[in-house]
Amino acid sequence: MTLTAPAVKQPPAPLKGRGGRPGHQGAARRREALTGYLFTAPTVIGFLVFVLGPLIAALYLSLTKYNILTAPKFVGLDNYARMFRDERLATTYGNTVLYVAAAVVLINGFALLFAVLINQRLPRALTYVFRSAYFFPYLVALVYVSIIWQALFQKDTGILNYYLTAMGGERIDWLNSSEFSKVSVIIVDTWRNVGFAMLIFVAALQEVPKDMVEAARMDGANEWQVFRRIVLPMISQATFFNITITIIGAFQIYESIIVLTRGGPGDASRSVVMYIAEVAFNKFDMGYASAIAVTLFLIIMLVTIVQFRLRKSWVNNE
Amino acid sequence: MSVALLVIGAVGMIAPFLWMFTTSLRDASHAYDLPPQWLPTEWDWSNYAGAVSGPVPILRNMLNSAVIAIAVSVGMIITAPMAGYAFAKLQFPGRNSIFVGLLSSLMVPAQVTIIPLFLLMRTFGLLDNPLSLILPGITGALGVFLLRQFFLGLPQEIIDAARMDGATAWQTYRLIALPLAKNAVSTLGVITFLGSWNAYFAPSIFLNSTDTATLPLGLVLMLGPYGAGNVAQVMAATTIAIAPALIVFLVAQRWIIASLTQSAVKG
């Protein structure tokens, strides 16, 4: 209520848009502006202190050598040059790009498949059950689902290998081999995120006009043609949104790997965010860690801007 | 055929949770028995007792998580609707540029601000303190965006009528606009709560003792390196940890789904 103090003093002028009497209009407008600033103040302050300020500080730190104990020392672009010689960075960025590629293809592929299946004429209760089942993992912390999965992935005691050997396969060292550690991370990432992407696709599919699809069928188009020529273009906005979200999410992949493989064996499954955290908070090489983090920021900014631009030109907005 | 595919997918989604629950009810020595049991054969709750009385103070961690998540969501449902309303319904110089600036923060990943934030918290002595997670959490661009969308859809006549009747700007907001936004605000509250409850990255960096740790940190500690912890107890603790998500899911699934999908499809 204290927020209203400036506004309570006098009865508010009749605020009929911009058409009131000139004398009152100025005062009313000033009061409205003041209210606007007061209402947005907490959010703006939070933004300045916890986002913009730290972002600028990170850009500055990326140009310094800083170990917390002594003051940051300006070193120009040294940290950026150092990245090109850092083999561990190459490995962890390589892994991360693999996770991103897998996420884009697998999450969106499965999500679209399940969305199309769910969007068929199924009994309402069944649709509800399926939608719920696919969506639930998305609400659970990635740490918790990873804890469950690391037990399922155990080489000797895990049930995945039990069923694998029961079907005549070989035991797989899911968490400790350099190939399968990455596969495990990808499985958990796909499994957890498919439901959210699916919901986005389902919502988009429901907006596709049924008569358009019917008309195409009447004209002799087969199911694939209907999907490819009508449905897919109509849901392009959702597809674009999903791809952007999966790219951004996978570039930041972190805690599932900590629980599943701790980045190992060696750096085989380590993501770039794990590497940043290690450089910053184990080695206290804050300047270099900031520089790596800035590259991640630039990538994510680029993806977001590209999506924003392309969304206008490519996407069928109907 | 297509239903069969959907059933396989759904089973794959639920099976890990079922295994978790069943394992949490089995004696630790049978936890890894193969072939796996999918339905509880015994109802032995001792693992739950064991989980909460073990070396990692899980209940304490849960309380920490709850305090932070509640503080963050309460803060968010106060700050975000006010800002969203101002950006949608009030005229003030710089309104649009401020809004675009705020929105651009959605492009800033937590990893790039974490180092300066760590230094900031360290300077103010807030490391290992829940405030290090609460203060940055009580405002945020996403909530402002969601609520602005809602208020944009609110007919201007309702606002004007209230003002004509002599309501102040605050009264118009608090008594007219905000009650109409009840659903949007509840959704924001639930999403914010779950986001905080599930968070791992920032807590893992700002908190470094078992007493201040949040539940996800506690569970990772309990699991131990290479999953060496007592699996039945770990699964009991995980079952407890998942409960809030399950409750939210059962109660609020419908409107969470609606609000999450809206922005993407209607754009």
List the main descriptive attributes of the protein structure presented here.
heterodimer, A: 318 residues, mainly alpha, MetI-like fold, 2 domains, two-stranded antiparallel sheet, 2 strands, 1% strand, globular, B: 267 residues, cell membrane (chain B), transmembrane (chain B), MetI-like (chain B)
In words, what does this structure look like?
- The complex is a heterodimer of chains A (318) and B (267).
- Chain A is mostly helical.
- Chain A has two domains: 2-61; 85-313, MetI-like (MetI-like fold, Orthogonal Bundle), CATH 1.10.3720.
- Chain A has helices at residues 5-8, 22-61, 78-83, 87-118, 124-139, 142-152, 159-166, 180-206, 210-218, 223-234, 236-251, 255-260, 272-281, 286-313, and strands at 64-65, 73-74.
- A two-stranded antiparallel sheet of chain A has the order 1-2.
- Chain A is globular.
- Residues 1-21 of chain A have low confidence and may be disordered.
- With 267 residues, chain B is mainly alpha-helical.
- Chain B has two domains: 1-44, no CATH class; 55-266, Orthogonal Bundle (MetI-like fold), CATH 1.10.3720.10.
- Chain B is 73% helix and 0% strand.
- Chain B is built from 13 helices and no strands.
- Chain B has helices spanning 2-24, 46-52, 58-89, 95-104, 110-123, 131-137, 141-152, 156-164, 169-180, 182-198, 201-206, 215-223, 231-266.
- In chain B, helix 3 (58-89) packs antiparallel against helix 10.
- The longest helix of chain B is centred in the last third of the chain and has 36 residues, at 231-266.
- Chain B is globular, with a radius of gyration of 23 Å.
- The relative contact order of chain B is 0.15.
- Classes of the chains: A mainly alpha (318), B mainly alpha (267).
- At the A-B interface, helix 2, helix 4, helix 5, helix 6 and helix 7 of A face helix 1, helix 3, helix 4, helix 5 and helix 8 of B.
- Chain A: Residues 93-307 form the ABC transmembrane type-1 domain.
- Chain A: It is a multi-pass membrane protein.
